[in-house]
Amino acid sequence: ELAVRLPSAIFGILTVGLSFFFVKQVFNNKKIALLSMALLAISPWHIHLSRVESESNTAVFLVLLAVMLFIRAVKKSSWLFIPSFVFFALTYFTYAGNYVFTTLLVLGIVIIYRKQIFKNRYFIVGVILFILIALFISSKTIFANNTKISGIGIFGDPALVHAKIEIPRNEHINTNSLEAKFFHNRLIFASEKFAQNYLKSFSPEFLFIKGGDNGAHNILNFGNMYLIEAPFLLLGLFYLIFFKKGSEKKLILYWLLIAPISASITKDAPHTNRMFAIFPVLPILTALGLYYLITLVKKKAFRNILIASLIIVFVINIGMYIDRYYVHFPKNEIENWGFSYRKINDFINQKKYVSKKIVMSKPETSPYIFLLFYSKYDPVSYQKNASRYGYTEDGFVHVKGFDRYEFRGIDWDKDLNTNTLVIDFASEIPDSIKNERYSISQISESGRPIFSVVETK
Fold this sequence. Notes:
By secondary structure, the chain is an alpha/beta fold. It has helices at residues 2-27, 30-42, 44-51, 55-75, 81-90, 98-112, 114-117, 121-140, 147-152, 158-170, 178-183, 186-200, 204-209, 229-243, 247-258, 261-264, 281-296, 300-332, 341-348, 367-375, 379-385, and strands spanning 357-360, 387-391, 397-402, 405-407, 420-425, 438-445, 448-456. It starts with a helix and ends with a strand.
């Protein structure tokens, strides 16, 4: 687990330090840079995605580094255009959402700084490298397999498409009329859905109250940002628009506006992980708001009272987060994080069970990948022997089985025999199995049964 999670943790830590130098370069203000760095370091959004395996977290670091080098190249050392564009291109290999976000960001940053860069030979070299690397990466990734893209897109849920297009069209007297076709078609549906998703990305509910709907990326009933940050985010945006000038102001605002686009073309937006491209901008704007408010208070005594009050409220907010994250989150989400699969692997690989067939329920939860991971199963053998189900409505393919493992719905009348172990969630075990003919072993976490392993005595 450490090897899987460590890269994300390292890039998360590096992003904290990098944010200081980025903001200092953009605003030439050490206090704003320190505030931004501090807010980024304590952010629930950043802490959460830095402590799990997250490609989007790595992509944020690469983007921040690329933009910082680009601005540095414009102002002082033009040769830095080359590594800047290399890092921009590497984001395509890091996270799928960056195919949209990085492309838009590069186009925007080139337009914003066009007067300073177009005649620079290092810029030309950097652009050529960017295009070559991006094309190579795309040929091996997005152009090689579009399964996930089709599955998570706006049209990825056939039931929703049916409810929003086909049913309303059939409610017209003449389903083939111009009116019916004009208002109820895939283009209108996609445009409306995209606009709704985009606006939700800036909603108080998503940012400050509950985050997205994916439990893996959010703590229950806790936003991606602290509630105390809400007024300062707005104040910072006001301060940036009306009191700051220059290309960097345009860059920050442009970054803010394009960040939700890639997430907004998916069916379950706003999505905390896919929206993470926006993240560096939010602590910066919040820091600007805090700095602006503090500088408005001229008397030192009042300013100190204000700072002390803000610190107290922030500490309370952080304390609430720590309580929910370290105390309640593990208990409420334990079934969704695969905590018990290591224990399952250890159990079924005991000497007395290694020759038995394993039947495990719910292939849609991908239990196979945990068993491969914890047993250190040979990847080449797996790739040769694995069998799979067909495509799901979401465009995914689930594993049916490999070696002695089979993943499917359980037939309790037929599957239980002396050569088989049957594994299901503890809550799914039927009462008819709980008798003296069968032995049921519980796989528990924190005293709570998660899985049951059933065998014939």
